[in-house]
Structures are given as C-alpha cells and as structure tokens.
Amino acid sequence: MKALYPGTFDPITFGHLDILERATSLFDEVVITVAVNTKKESVFSKDERIELIEQALEGKDWAKKVKVVAFTGLLVDHAREQNVQTLIRGVRQVSDFEYEFRMALMNRRLAPDIDTIFLMPQEQLTFVSATIVREVAYWGGELQHFVPQHVAKALQEKYDDIRSREKK
Predict the structure, then answer these.
(1) Which of 72, 104, 160, 168 is a good FRET partner for 98, with 20 to 30 A between their CA atoms?
(2) How far apart are CA 90 and CA 97, in angstroms?
(3) pLDDT reading at 168 higher than 70
(4) Model-level pTM?
(5) Does residue 160 sit within a domain?
(6) Which has the minimum average pLDDT: 71-75, 78-82, 93-97?
(7) Per the domain annotation, does 150 fall within a domain?
(8) What's the CATH number where 104 sits?
(9) How many independent structural domains does the chain possess?
C-alpha cells in the first residue's frame, strides 16, 4: 500500500522526519509531496526543498520506501495522480488537529475514496514547526535540535543573505 505525506517542508524538520519514518513502517511506499503554494512565500524554492529532503533521507534504511515529488493544486487531485488512497498528516497539538480535521473533511468531500490518517511525532518534537525553526534561524539561534545539520546550514546562509540585503 502507498501513502502520500504532503506539506510545504520549508524547511524539513526532525518532526517531519519522525512522522515520515513512522509512515514507512505502515506503508510500502510513502510519497513525500512538496506543496508549491503560489500564494505563500517560501524561504526555500521548490527545488531547494526537494534537495534538502533528499539529503535528509540519505543513509536511512527506511528511506528506500520514500519518493519525493512536488505538486501545485488540489491535494486530492495529486493523490489520484499518484494512485494513492491515504494521506498522512502530522499532528503535534490540539490546534493542529482542529485545522487538519477540517482539511481532512474537505478532502473527504472532494474525494470520498481518499482517507487521511494522523500521526504524532515523538513527544520531544511536538513543539517543533517549520515556522518556529525559520524564526529561530532568522535571529541566528541554535537549530541542531530541530533540523538536520545541512538544513541548519542552508537556513543560516539564506538568512545571512536576507539580513545583509535588509541592511542596505
């Protein structure tokens, strides 16, 4: 069986990787799907996000079950294109669940044949979000507990560049 794990992954965090590893224990293949939302400004481009994800998967046995792709549009349309009947969503807190529950119901209305399952990360990762990671990175904070080293380095380079442009 195959599942789809969608998100912006801007950037990928240890929480995302934990959910992904859990998903590979449940499914034969997991398609990690980088959402390209033209209404939302990302720190990393689609190609950069895909590269960072692929690098984060290197050397992990369970990563053999993972495929990384990008998409624009309705998630259920992409799931059908990928021949997937299960969507995976990570839920860290009750506030995440409220949003994800509404999205799951909308997806069910649009595609009754596609189900959503919710997975929780390890307890110590429940507060980690890409938004918080970007904020910490912008202000030059330590990231080693939240993202892989190559992601921390890429964030630091991005924000160094952004901060230098802001000073001009």
Answers:
(1) 72
(2) 9
(3) no
(4) 0.90
(5) no
(6) 93-97
(7) no
(8) 3.40.50.620
(9) 1
